[in-house]
Design a protein that fits this description.
Residues 228-249 are annotated as: Disordered. Helices cover 19% and strands 29% of the residues. The protein is built from four helices and 15 strands.
């Protein structure tokens, strides 16, 4: 049940949630908080003439009304990479979480929408702070877990090369890349589509990425520090070099 409340002078809603066999109420702000979406059916309508808005019912003293949610999230599942269709349109036809994501991204593109912001929750994936960025953002608090906004940075730098962490974020990026490859066929569907210019100075075309502004959330307690020692690949390379050395004795 959603009930109207005010916190520090701001309009909030209160949502009743069941977690671990307990019922509890949480104050939520539809314009700030992130709402994770789950569904058994994943059905949506096929009308893309207008930008979609996901709304939260608000039982205000002024009468029942709905409020647009500004941030939504989907939990990444490694099965998203399995048996991907050969076209983006076929992917959109799926009644699945990845099909819903594909439709939502397509709708946002056609309507130049900036909301809702889409987040991908990456559970149980190790992550580290990108060396080019300083610090981490303020966390979001779930029932029993803290999440932070992270860059899809999944390798630890070493002198010669990088080595992966647990591979979870690599699978996330693999799926995002597949989305963009399939989504390239949708670029011409926009009413104001114009061919992208070739950049002669740099020698490339600007790519169209349908998932360009998707953001990522990871569990804060899955953060690990960057290593300062040698990576496993470097150790293997050193061993190979030693084996190749012929001292001539």
């Amino acid at each position: 049940m959603i009930q109207y409340s005010r916190v520090d002078g701001h309009d909030f809603a209160r949502i009743s949630i069941r977690g671990k066999g307990e019922d509890w109420d949480a104050p939520v702000n539809p314009t700030h908080d992130i709402f994770c979406i789950r569904s058994k059916a994943w059905n949506t309508h096929d009308n893309h003439a207008e930008g979609w808005q996901i709304q939260l019912p608000d039982l205000s003293p002024n009468g029942s009304q709905s409020m647009n949610i500004q941030n939504i999230a989907l939990e990444f599942n490694e099965s998203w990479n399995k048996d991907l269709p050969k076209s983006y349109y076929e992917l959109m036809s799926e009644t699945s979480a990845r099909g819903f994501l594909a439709r939502l991204l397509y709708n946002r593109y056609l309507n130049d929408s900036i909301t809702p912001q889409i987040w991908i929750i990456v559970k149980n994936g190790q992550w580290t702070i990108d060396p080019e960025r300083q610090g981490t953002a303020e966390p979001w608090y779930d029932y029993d877990t803290d999440y932070v906004h992270v860059s899809p940075y999944f390798s630890c730098p070493h002198r010669l090369r990088k080595h992966d962490f647990d591979g979870v974020f690599r699978n996330v990026i693999k799926f995002e890349y597949s989305l963009d490859v399939l989504g390239a066929a949708c670029e011409r569907d926009h009413l104001d589509y114009m061919p992208r210019d070739y950049d002669g100075d740099w020698g490339f075309y600007e790519s169209f990425d349908i998932s360009y502004d998707v953001k990522f959330l990871a569990q804060r307690d899955m953060q690990i520090g960057t290593c300062t020692g040698r990576g496993p690949d470097e150790d293997e390379e050193e061993e190979e070099e030693e084996e190749d050395v012929d001292m001539g004795f």
